[in-house]
Task: structure prediction
Amino acid sequence: MTSTLLSPSTRRKLDESIPPLLRPLIRAYVLGYASAVAPRLLTLVLQYVTRRRKNKGVASAIRPHDSFITSLQRILRGGLELQRFPTFCAALVGGTTLLEVLLGTAFNRLLSTSQLTSLTRKRLLTWLSSFISAWLSLRLLQSKESDSFAETIGISQDSLENAKQETIRYAGRTLDLTLFASTRALDVIIGEIWSRKRSHRVTAEKWTRGESLISKLTDPTIFATSSALIMWAWFYCPSKLPKSYTKWISSAASVDSRLIEALRRCRSGELLYGKETGQAGLLQSMCADFKWPLEWGDPAKSIPFPCEVVHMGCGPNCEHHALSRFYRSFQWAMATYLPVNLFTKKRDLKGIKAAFISAARSSSFLAAFIALFYYGVCLARTRIGPHFIGKDTEARQKIDSGLCVGSGCFLCGWSVLIEKAARRKELALFVAPRAMATLLPRQYSLDKQWRETFVFAFSTAVVFTCVRENPKRLRGVLGKVLGFVMEAQPR
Result:
């Protein structure tokens, strides 16, 4: 963030050159622009470097440099458009602070005869200003039309000449943003209630070990539950997840798509054990690639297909496969986490050591996540499931129709216990909105969009009021960022 990239003296000078009332608006716009443009710029640079290495010495009609400059200009200009995220951030934060000033006098005069305290009136003013700004800023984003949320249908089919087409537009583009806000608002409300209860019971010396355990396990439980929903959606309903999210999970899982498709067909009833349904070719092609007996891929003969197929070349032992997955995933994750940690830490020996420890912990978490998912599948298919559900054809069909995947989904998220408590909070709040999105339609009727707008505005008002009154209640990095952005005075 800009607050960490600039020195305190430089930030102070920049702040002092801007009128106090406009500081939150400008900070919000700059941070919004950076968060919207920076990832795309990084992707562009990496693609450019990769392309230059591949095409080195190869003649091309269009020079890669020209293409890079054109894409660079498009990305930089795109972030400046009115209906984009930077303007939304400026309208949301700047609108809140400006409305507090504009409505302050009239609001206090209106409630001056009420029994409300000045602190309560201040909170209500902040909440109302935030609500109005959030409503209008989200409507600004929603006003941008997208072909992905539109459908063209024919309304007359009497003849080709008389046929007409109508474009129906759907809502849902801003759903992820709304779920993010609502998740944070729930965290603020529930956290405040629980904190007051804890304080009261500790004072009365009635705080129990069970309540202490609930406090410690809340974030891991949220993460594990959210991860289970996300992994289930990735396996059976990938359309419920953003494409980039699905692509990243697929890259981390490193699984043969034919295996996933076989388990999906087991669930849909296309692939039935003990019956010839014409599905043998799917896994038999996989058997041919891995040099396994072709009958392993025939559901009419192999009931069920061996767990070695799930292991994809790691041998028949489920535990060996889980350890192998952990090792390979750890290497893959370290290649990502270590450079990032080295970049963000100090360049001395202590900083380098901290970077390695942090990267190793995060890599272990991700590696355990992947290994537990696969081992959960094996537990249901081989180690535990058949002893409880049965070993007949019907039981095997039931296990591979969803129980084995469900077992993996249930186990994988508990790997978060490897992370530190503070990191668990961040991870839980990161995945919770994405998990909630899997339970809701990605597109819905435009006439119901006001409901989403209301939820976003209400939730944002709760979060912003919390930032004003008790910023420590808003957990994680978001609280620090909003505290910095909404502060009118220079640091």
Summary: The chain has a mean pLDDT of 85.
